[in-house]
Write a structure and sequence with these properties.
Length: 183
């Protein structure tokens, strides 16, 4: 149990530092000084700051999906994800503008794919569409949302109206796509 607390403390310290510093300016020493542990302890849990960043993103995916899995529609789910980003705006931007961009993008893609798969499978229009074709549509939607999120994040998370309009246009096309694939 202590190991989990120490690992969580390291991750929490890193996240707090991300609120003030770009990811590429944060050192292992800064993290260990914030936690009050040794470098040896840090390296017991993580091989480097990249591994810590991946760990945090994986944890964020799990936490987000646990707390947002019962929403009635895909639009709400994607808007929840943007709210989630906005709630930690400076942390997200400091990751995005540093070497954590890849991990952040992986987080968005993994989460988007899971959201899309869940909702497409439940749509009436998906009846009569093979699982393989449903998965293809889920991937298209996930990559579409991924692109929208990356653009929005790259623009410092402004232009919310443009973001919502693009999201709505994309999501409104899904039923027609699925109907065209029915056998």
């Amino acid at each position: 149990m202590k190991q989990n607390r120490t690992k969580a403390a390291i991750a929490s310290a890193f996240t707090r530092l991300l609120a003030d510093y770009p990811i590429d300016k944060i050192t292992v020493k800064m993290i260990t000084d914030t936690v009050g542990c040794s470098r040896k302890t840090f390296y017991y849990y993580f091989t480097d700051v990249y591994a810590l960043t991946r760990y945090i993103c994986d944890e964020q995916v799990s936490r987000f999906l646990e707390s947002n899995g019962d929403v009635d529609n895909m639009r709400s789910e994607f808007l929840n994800l943007t709210s989630y980003f906005r709630s930690d705006r400076q942390v997200i931007l400091n990751m995005y503008h540093g070497y954590g961009k890849e991990e952040l993008e992986c987080f968005v893609l993994q989460t988007s794919l899971r959201i899309a798969r869940n909702y497409i499978a439940a749509m009436p229009e998906a009846q009569g569409v093979s699982k393989e074709d449903q998965d293809t549509v889920a991937h298209v939607i996930a990559y579409l949302f991924f692109g929208i999120m990356v653009e929005w994040t790259g623009e410092e998370m402004v232009h919310d109206d443009d973001y919502r309009k693009t999201l709505d246009t994309a999501l409104n096309s899904i039923p027609a796509i699925l109907r065209s694939m029915q056998k």
